[in-house]
Amino acid sequence: MIMTEEQAITWDIRAIYSPEIFEQWLNAMTKRKAVFVELMHIKDYDGKSNLVLSVYCAETQEELEESDPEFWFSYNVLENEFWSFVAAAANSPVTFDTEFFFEQLYLRG
């Protein structure tokens, strides 16, 4: 599904159900707002490990540093499709936190 920039900006984030829509949304939003994406390893409330891709948006970089995630994607929910959302974020012009990847390389090296 190809959307215009205006359609992407006004898209309800609760309906971002495909990596293609997510990437179009990110591309449109970064032209108007500061956007930051972070991949984190967390422990769920039941103690199970999970990967979460969090998306932050704000009017300015300063506001972005103080904001909570607009929404997030969970590996435990999406399973293998999760990596398509990570790839969409990596292919977009957003600021992407790579600290998690480097930590994993260090721990395995």
UniProtKB/TrEMBL annotation:
This is Uncharacterized protein.
